[in-house]
Design goal:
This protein is of the alpha+beta class. The protein contains eight helices and 21 strands. 19% of the residues lie in helices and 26% in strands. The strands form four sheets. Strands 3, 4, 5, 7, 8 and 9 form a six-stranded antiparallel sheet that branches. Strands 12-11-10-19-20-21 form a six-stranded mixed sheet. A six-stranded mixed sheet has the order 13-14-15-16-18-17, covered by helices on one side.
């Protein structure tokens, strides 16, 4: 009798554990990191109570818990919880609990806090991944013919590089015709993309930040007239873990974050954008308010490298597609203001084009060169566009296949070096280039 009761209890426990595993739709994912808190994200399949437990890997006996939260249908069953009992420069293991049951995964679930290095040591080495244009197939809603998305093993390749964080450069999901006219459709598309099995290990132990471009904002080439832009803004914020959004208080997703001695400026190239076909008045992509905020924020930053993330190419002289060159007056205003304010260390990061290229603009020997790294695409159909009209492109950096980038910054505080490496979907290096922070200074400030 006792044996029978034992096996019945064991069966019930196993059944309950299996049930709780099925309650997770996607994630967990690690969002932003600071010295004192980090964001943890998960999506359930139905309403459920969730929380996280976490502990310093060097001191597993002392455990901490986030608040508990019950996921809701109207918010896509998403939970965003804060690990707020952490200390700088630590690595933490975390565990996810859904309706009281511990969720098991076959890969690490970890996050890190940023290092308190100021006034103590040189800044730590930083490694981060970049990529854009991620299309996950769903046959009932895809266009007929050959599948547009492919090479999903690329996310395993990124995971194997063990970057500190990943910066998604737009078109992180592709809204379809059935999606962008309803909140239901937008939530479905974000959920479907986030649930990709090959993505889960990367989500679980690499911090993630993101901007958007047209396909995760609205229809193809969408602009400020998009009727559901407040809804897509809401859903974008639900599914990503940036530390701030809309810091110009005008709507959209403009933000910024720091990692070690680096600063990142996350721009919104859709919410304020004039239609590509509207030439009747002032034409803008970012808008004066956003550009003026950017110039002020860049001017106040002491970062040796100031990474400006935006959905489309900035420096390319090819006035085609949705490049900034098709909005020449505002582009000139942005670049002139960077030079006028004598801001050093600026590097643009963008996607959109379904190929990768590094552009370098050098007006004279008195000023430092501006760089623009376009990194595309992760899984969407790639092309071998040669950018024949882009006079600033570095020919040897053109890549016409699915790829991603790993950017690393190392060296002492006064002599930081950026290493750019581009990899194919299997993690094979395609090209690399080093840029010294000292070379991104005005001539009189160089050593």
């Amino acid at each position: 009798m006792k044996n029978t009761l034992f096996f019945v209890a064991l069966l019930l426990i196993n059944s309950y554990e299996a049930f709780t595993q099925d309650l997770v739709q996607s994630g967990p994912m690690v969002g932003y990191s600071t010295m004192r808190e980090a964001l943890l994200w998960v999506q359930t399949t139905t309403s459920a109570e969730v929380y996280f437990e976490y502990f310093d890997k060097e001191n597993p006996s002392e455990r901490f818990k986030t608040e508990k939260y019950t996921t809701q249908s109207k918010y896509g069953f998403v939970a965003k919880l804060i690990a707020d009992q952490i200390m700088p420069g630590k690595k933490y293991t975390y565990e996810l609990y859904v309706n009281g049951g511990k969720i098991q995964r076959g890969y690490p679930m970890e996050f890190q806090s940023q290092t308190l290095w100021q006034w103590r040591t040189d800044p730590p080495e930083v490694s981060f991944a970049i990529g854009s244009c991620n299309y996950v197939n769903e046959e009932p809603f895809d266009r007929p013919g050959k599948s547009y998305g492919s090479d999903f093993e690329i996310f395993e390749s990124i995971y194997q590089k063990r970057p500190d964080f990943m910066l998604w450069l737009g078109d992180n999901t592709y809204l379809r015709e059935a999606d962008w006219n309803s909140r239901t459709g937008v939530l479905h598309r974000y959920t479907h993309t986030r649930s990709l099995p090959q993505l889960q290990a990367l989500l679980a132990s690499t911090h993630h930040y993101a901007i958007w471009d047209d396909h995760d904002y609205g229809p193809d080439n969408a602009d400020s007239s998009f009727w559901l832009k407040e809804t897509t803004s809401e859903v974008f914020k639900l599914f990503w873990g940036n530390p701030n959004y809309d810091i110009i208080d005008k709507g959209g997703i403009t933000g910024s974050f720091q990692w070690a001695d680096l600063q990142f400026f996350l721009l919104d190239n859709r919410y304020f954008r004039t239609s590509n076909k509207n030439f009747t008045g002032k034409r803008e992509i970012l808008g004066k308010t956003q550009i003026d905020w950017l110039i002020n924020a860049l001017a106040s930053s002491n970062a040796p490298f100031k990474f400006v993330a935006i959905g489309g190419q900035v420096l390319s002289t090819e006035a085609d597609y949705e490049n900034y060159a098709t909005f020449p007056k505002e582009r000139r205003y942005l670049l002139d203001k960077i030079r006028e304010a004598r801001i050093e260390g600026v590097i643009f990061l963008d996607g959109d084009r379904h190929h990768t290229v590094l552009s370098r603009m050098q007006e004279s020997g008195e000023v430092y060169p501006l760089y623009d790294l376009t990194c595309s695409s992760l899984t969407s159909g790639a092309n071998s566009n040669k950018e024949e009209l882009n006079t600033f492109k570095l020919e040897e950096t053109l890549v016409g296949e699915n790829n991603f980038g790993i950017l690393s910054v190392s060296g002492p505080r006064t002599d930081r070096v950026l290493s750019i490496k581009i990899f194919d979907t299997n993690g094979k290096e395609l090209w690399s280039k080093d840029i010294k922070a000292q070379d991104l200074k005005y001539k009189k400030n160089r050593n």
